[in-house]
Amino acid sequence: MSGRALLMWDDAVTGYDFGANHPMDPVRLDLTMGLVRAYGLDRAVDVVAAPAAGDSTLRLVHREDYVAAVRAASADPGGADGAYGLGTADDPAFAGMHEASALIAGQSVGAAEAVWRGEAAHAVNFAGGLHHAMPGSAAGFCIYNDAALAIARLLELGAERVAYVDVDVHHGDGVQAAFWEDPRVLTISLHEHPRTLFPQTGWPEETGGGAGEGGAVNVALPAGTGDEGWLRAFHSVVPELLADFRPQVLVTQHGADTHFDDPLAHLAVSLDAQRAVQAACHDLAHEYVEGGLWVALGGGGYAVVDVVPRSWTHLVAIAAHRPIDPESVIPASWQDEVYARTRQLGPGRMTDGRTPAWQGWEAGYDPADRLDQAVLAARRAVFPLRGMLP
Predict the structure, then answer these.
(1) Which residues make beta-bridge pairs with 128?
(2) Alpha-carbon separation of residue 380 from 26, 195, 206, 250, 389 (angstroms)
(3) Strands 185-192 and 216-221
(4) Does the annotation mark 191 as catalytic?
(5) How far is CA 56 from its chain centroid?
(6) Which of 87, 218, 262, 265 has the fewest CB neighbours in a 10 Å radius?
(7) Which candidate in 122, 132, 171, 282 is catalytic?
(8) How confident is the prediction for the chain on average, in pLDDT?
(9) Of 110, 108, 158, 97, whose CA–CA distance to 296 is shortest?
(10) Nearest C-alpha neighbor of 262 from the set 307, 322, 215
């Protein structure tokens, strides 16, 4: 197995563009790749462009009629069929939509194939993580569910246990739905509580169905949760479940919209805590997955200058085993790129100046604390179904 990580990148992924004034601005992808290059990480990883996902791959998750509807809307955006969630405010149709969406999906599928075949232990597609798309509809800025497609391709290749950990501020509903009854897939989502945020799913009682009962885990965090609570919730749920499940591949989604500057949500997490969870996912892959097989994806994130590029550059650096000192001064070349592209001034360092810390669950919990209530609800809902003590 190659000791180098893969970074999946094709300039054409920036064609995934819902238009002016939409929060999902593709400049966030360009600026992330620019910061990766400014730190020389493109020389520490193998930068690979995979082909777009073809129809047979897309149909591993998506219905044939839905793929046809996306193709039709891609060719004629004005005729988009709203019954498929296309042409809406969240998911406006645009020319070339099918091609751009399939290309992003292809990068995540290619990442999964590469780690499964031993070409690399780690692979990153920060353009991916579009976790809301359903088998028959677009939702939440997501046309094709690249995360679910990557997992489905792993199963097709013979994987028997795949774990998916989603730390986006929004519930990973599309991935959960795709594998609701599949015992081969464990989905874990930490997200803002559905009472206060789209998609209004991800309650702790959602635990999977049929043969997959106990395979869906949801930690619904109270609005306002900051670094200490977010890290406590992650470490109070994820490691024990991975230790029990022993996945053959770990797939993680790293939406940067948990950040306190994100305009679309209500958590208060810093860049430094996001980096800590990225590093924890890397360590958990090495601890519980033979060969450390890890596919890391992007996701949401709408502070497109100050947060997203730094967060996902840290992710690439961690996967490359070349972590960046948070106190490092960001190269002037990238600052110039930011100003040229956005007429904004970029952040100066790779840190928000926080020192993340948390108290482990083994030290006890406070039944009156809202964060601890969220953790306990998730543990009580799922752990006994898996033969574990809550």
Answers:
(1) none
(2) 40, 20, 12, 24, 8
(3) parallel
(4) no
(5) 23
(6) 87
(7) 132
(8) 97
(9) 108
(10) 307
What burial letters (b/e) apply to 321-341, b meaning 16+ CB within 10 Å? eeebebeeebeeebbebbeee
pLDDT at 3: 72
Residue 159 token pair: 């994987």
Report the distance separating Cα 157 and Cα 303, nearest Å: 37
Residue 323: what residue type?
P
Report the share of the chain in percent with pLDDT over 90: 99
Closest CA to 162 of 281, 252, 258: 252
Q: How buried is 295 (Cβ within 10 angstroms: 0-12 exposed, 13-18 middle, 19+ buried)?
A: buried
Q: Sheet containing 122-125: give its strands across.
A: 46-48, 6-8, 122-125, 294-297, 249-253, 162-166, 185-192, 216-221
Say whether pLDDT at 2 is over 80: no
Nearest-angstrom CA–CA distance, 215 and 285: 18
pLDDT (tens digit, 9 = 90+) per residue, 58-90? 999 999 999 999 999 999 999 999 999 999 999
Q: How far is CA 173 from CA 176, 267, 274, 340, 360, in A?
A: 5, 18, 21, 37, 27
Q: What is the pLDDT of residues 291-335, one digit of tens each?
A: 999 999 999 999 999 999 999 999 999 999 999 999 999 999 999
Dihedral angle computed from the Cα positions of residues 187, 190, 196 and 201, in that order, rounded to the nearest 10 degrees = 10
Chain centre to alpha carbon of residue 248 = 19
pTM above 0.85, yes or no: yes
